[in-house]
Structure formats: structure tokens, C-alpha cells
Design a protein that fits this description.
By secondary structure, this protein is α+β, with helices and mostly antiparallel strands. It has 14 helices and 14 strands. The chain has 3 domains: 98 residues, no CATH class; 138 residues, no CATH class; 168 residues, Nucleotidyltransferase, domain 5, CATH 3.30.420. A 7-stranded antiparallel beta sheet has the order 2-6-7-1-5-4-3. One of its GO terms (molecular function) is DNA binding.
Length: 485
Amino acid sequence: MTTEIAHKAFKYRLKPTQTQENAFRQAVGAARVAYNMLTALNRDVLRRGWEIRNQLIEQGLSEAEASAQMKKLRKEDLSLKIMSSFAWQKDVLTPEIARHKQAAARIAAGDPIESVWSGERFAEPWFHAVPRRAFVSGADQAATAISNWMKSVAGQRAGNKMGLPRFKKAGRSHDSITIPVVDGSSPAGGYGASYKRGEPRKGFIQDHHRLRLAMFGTVVTYNSTAPLTQLVTQGGTIKSFTISRDAQYWYVSLLVEAPINLLHRPGPTKAQEKAGVIGVDLGVKAKAALSNGEIINNPRHLQLSLKRLAKLQVKLSRTQKGSKNREHLKKQISRLQHKIALQRAASNHQMTKELSTTYVGVGIEDLNVAGMTKSASGTLENPGKNVAAKSGLNRNILDVSFGQIRNQLEYKTKMYGSALTVIGRYEPTSKRCSQCGAMKSDLSLKERTYICVECNYQDDRDINAAKNIRNLAEKELGMVSSISS
């Protein structure tokens, strides 16, 4: 019998030494270079393919015939085929590392750098000095990006159509590197793992504030690694780890694979069954209205820091590019934005955990956040109205982070034996009476109290919507609706 497995991620903020931080920077830099190199190659392949296809159409072929001809040409001419990460490693990375290594050896032997390394993109050879896995990580990211774009164009990927993968720029793109396990051995370890060979410590890690990471050695963590150690001890396996940087802070995320019984509660508890299903109506004025009558206030983390953020951005706009003051202000802004993001995530984690652990089921709406936050300015042909007010509403919607709340509920309900039901976005939950089912033909946003003309039921409009969501969730879960006023 095959054991069903599941995955769980653990994220820790790191406290690296200066040497380790330099290694992090070098590794994510190498990954970025690899990403850009493979992306550039594949964009050139696409450009050449489009040029040939356009020529075929100009010669009289239909679009369908041109596409069929291009499919045939790609089989015959590999230069017209998208390059995979593996092919790039074999045909580009390996020779490039060897070339850098040979050039570095000649320079070390005394040859003038001008004769060995002239006309090169980089000031000196360095590919050979970085672990190969750093480049592989960037190439894998580039291959995934082009694959996602192709699926999006073909209509095989949900959401809006994606644009072509863009190049990453130092200081502006998200820095990260992922090291997978390919041989069954763990690339990382916590309590009980051996120290890396050559480190001053001997024996094994004996506290819950250190992680041994391949390529980087033993790194100190701010938060405890005890939950990770417990899961690995019980039979979990670390499949990969990702080093990333947010603002000026370094993090590691470890993906652990384990039997599903170690990660997911098999079913709801008696307390959850007694509590029943809860309906959640997400909003801006209040972050959430619950079908039990509770209102969860919106902390408005961005709004509280907006004035300070605006002042810093004004100061930044007045600085000279390349100046130390500009770099200092950019770091201040990124730290503040990072703080806001952490506050928002913590607030949402608190709410979603309480919902997942308390109730047998949680119902939410499938909100079209992209449509709700569409640009307020509009276009030249169709200019926007009430632009300032709409921009403020967009900002407040994004500050609540409906998508983050849904994502947290999706995995937490599985963890705690609950069930998440997502109600269709076109269900009239605001206009329907949660008691008798009567429908209002019109309900303006100014009406904050729902009054049913059929049964005279009155309630806060958001609470009424939450009750409708609960009723629909109970129906979806096959439970008897327990409508209560």
C-alpha cells in the first residue's frame, strides 16, 4: 500500500556572518546571471521564429499553414527550438565555467589580464568560483518562466495572459536561489545534523537556532527550528531549500515531504463539529464579517505607515542617482515595506488559524481581485472617473490581501481537519435574504443595513452576506443548513 504524502514549508529568518552573506550575494547573483543568459537565448529563438513565420505568411500561407510549417522546421532546426535548462547547462554553462577557470589560471600565472580577458562582459573571470548549483537554480527559474508563458499563450494556464519573461536586474528583482535534493540525501539539517567539514565546531548541532545548509555551512536562525526537527525526526524528508532576500534580510524556506498523517489532521474534532460551518465575507471597511455576527476589524497596516512612506519616497525623488543618500533612502523604504508585509501576513495568519481550528468548514467568496483593483486612470478612449477615490480603494483592497487570506485557508483547513468551500463569484450573497431567500433587485453600497421586504429580517449587510456564504457552504459540504438570525 502506497503511503500518501504531503508537503510543508518552514521559513526562517537567518543571521549570517559577513562571509556567509557574501556567499549568499554571490550565489543569487550567479542565479540571476544564468536566468538572464537563458532568457536572452530563448527570446532570440522566439524572435527568429516569429520572423520566419511572418515571412511564410507574406509568401501566401495562412496562419494555420504557417504554424504547421514552423512546427516542422523546429524539428529539423534545433536553433529554432526553445532551450531547456538541461541543454543550457550542457551546451553553455559547462564550457563557460571551463573558459573562466582557464582564464583565471592564466592570470594567476602572470599573464596580463588585457591579453587574457579583453572585451568580456565581466571585469574578471568568476564562474568557476561559484558552486554550479547556483547557476542551475537560475536556469531552472528561466525555463519555468518561459514554460509558464507558453502555457499562458496556449490558454493552458489560468488568469490573464502573461507577457514574455523579462530580464532580472540587480537591486530590483527578487533575489532567490533554490537547492533541490537530487540524490536522496538532505542538503540541510537542524538539530542533530553534523557541522560542515572545516567549521570550527565539532560533532553535531545541539540547539534549535542553527541550520546546516549546503554550500553555505551552518547558519544561525532567529526563530526556533524545533518544529522542523520534530517533523524530520518523525519521518519527514527535506526536499529543497530556498535562500531569498527581502529588504536587507535573508531567509531560508525548507520544503519538507512527509506522510500525510504527520501534516494533516484526519478529520475535524468534536469541538469543530459542534461549531459547524462559518461563512466569511471579506471586505475593506472591516476585514471580515462572520456569519456568527462577529466583525473582524481591518488593521490597515499600509494606511498607518502611508505618510511616512510618502515622505521617504518624496525624499528619494529629490536625490541624485548613484548617491549614498539615495541608496540609504531606498533601504529605508524597502525595510518599511517589508515591515508592512510582515504585519499584514501576521494579522491574516492569526485570523485564518482561528477559523481553521474552530470550525468544521469555512466558506469564502471567489473574489476577482484583479478586476476589483483595475487601474483607476482608465485609457484615453475611456478615461476613469473619481480616480483619486478609486485609487484609494484599490490600495485598501490590496492592503487586506484577499489572495493571501484564501491561500492560507487552503492549506490550514487541510492541516486542522476542516474544509474550505469557495463560493462562485456571481452568487448574489449581498442581495439575498439569508433567512427566507428573497432577492432584492437593487442594493446600493450606501445601505449598510439589509432589510428584507418579504420577512422583515434586518441585519448588517456584510453579516447577511456571510450567512448566505455559510448556507451555500453547508449545501456544498452536504450538511443540513442551520440558519439562525
